Amino acid sequence: MRKTLMIAALTLGLAAAPGASLAHHGWSSYDATELVRVTAPLTDVSWGNPHGAAKVVHDGKTWDVILAPVSRMEARGLTREMLGPGKRVTLEGYARRDGTAELRLERVIAEGKTVELR
Q1: pTM above 0.90, yes or no
Q2: What's the rounded Cα separation, in Å, for the pair 31 and 102?
Q3: Which terminus of the chain faces fewer neighbouring Cβ atoms within 10 Å, N or C?
């Protein structure tokens, strides 16, 4: 019985894995040939894993901004306070190829400090 349960759990775990990977961001979805630079206040910030996220209004659209993992941002000197809602920052990254208003962030300039995220 125990062996059957272990096999069932393993099978379910493997079956769920492809869905989990599809739900996350693939870097090939972004146009790495054209760097987008936005200077504006952040409207929302999520400081969590697997990576942080934010929102910014640019060209009349609200863009989702994909940040780096919290541990990487903090190790490079970027703090939650530097990216708080309403903080004016400069974001540099790549937009999605499909036209979705989403930016994969490469670097951020906040409080006069440039932080590389990738």
Answers
A1: no
A2: 11
A3: N
